[in-house]
Amino acid sequence: MMGETEMRCQIHTLYTKVDVNLRSLRKQNITSSETLTDGPCDVDFVESVEYIVEPENYMNFSQFSIDYVDREQKLYFDDHALESRFGGRQTLEEHKNSYYARDQTLHCGFVKGPVGYPSTGYDLNEKDEEYMAHCRIVVSSCIFGNSDFLRRPTSRMISTFSKKNVCFMMFLDELTMRKLSSEGHVPDDEGYVGLWKIIIVKNLPYADMRKTGKVPKFLSHRLFPSAWYSIWIDSKMRLQVDPMLIIEYFLWRMKSEYAISNHYDRHCVWEEVVQNKRLNKYNHSAIDEQFWFYQSDGLVRFNDSDLNAPLPSNVPEGSFIVRAHTPMSNLFSCLWFNEANRFTSRDQLSFAYTFFKLRRMNPGKPFFLNMFKDCERRAIAKVFRHKAEDLHPPPVSRHFYS
């Protein structure tokens, strides 16, 4: 992997600038009547990474400093001892204050208990952590609980530049690694299966495998502290577009710091709640508790007739996320993770609440989120069905602590 200065120079000499009015593009191409389609739509990617250049002053977004709660000392509630938890024990006041885009220290996973307490989970090999600390551009995915097949990126579609400079990281637990090895996916001497660098996670922090999956999905800025950009791809998808072309189109060209697609069928959280209950995706009482909390804190129905709405949909299809690791993007990711940690692992229920509360609490500090069309997501990767739909019975949600 080349040095930071050399890599920055190559990215700057690689590229063309395109000015696009993002708001009008979103309103023109995404409407509430968009329905599920099986095929992709055309995406105007540049022909080659050789023709791209990182725009000057691209990282000129809202600037502030955030740090993370590393250890909690108070593990008592009503004089009862409490176990330490990976997500920590955030109070209602801490939850409210964490939404301010300002210099702060907030909960964002990886919280340790007092000295002498056992690990809270997501334990990684020290050599893997050292490798991850040097990654600048990351594509990551995960499989926990032997819930899916290993789908390798289409190598012929990935440029030599990306193969040399992008970290392709696949997080697995030991059970999944044993199963994949029995199917012929045996890592080579350097720990690779195809382009994927295999990272074994021990001591999973949650019994709910979907909730454990939120760690690499939302917390790439914590797992890869030196990264400039990251792309999350769900294990049900096989990447078939070069990562640098994705970053250019969805972030640089759209002048955004975070990109995610709209849901293919639903656009209102109210609809998502009904669907999750109808399909028994999670404990109904836990969904009700979460939904009640969000409504009491200002969440309203999606209005598809509002042309000034900041998002074309309030429900994302969260299987593909493109991020610049800016302060606001990192804060949003921490906040979204905290909602999934606090309530259900159904992150489509918490996305709109997180986005609109962050926006409401920081009127002078915009968050540049590009919600693109679902058919564009399907152009990026081939979509399959998960091998397993029900990984573990979902637990009830947890309350705030005083």
Automatic annotation (TrEMBL):
It comes from Apostasia shenzhenica. PANTHER family: ALKALINE CERAMIDASE-RELATED, TRANSMEMBRANE PROTEIN. This is TOD1/MUCI70 glycosyltransferase-like domain-containing protein. Residues 67-386 form the TOD1/MUCI70 glycosyltransferase-like domain. It comes from the Eukaryota. Pfam families: TOD1_MUCI70.
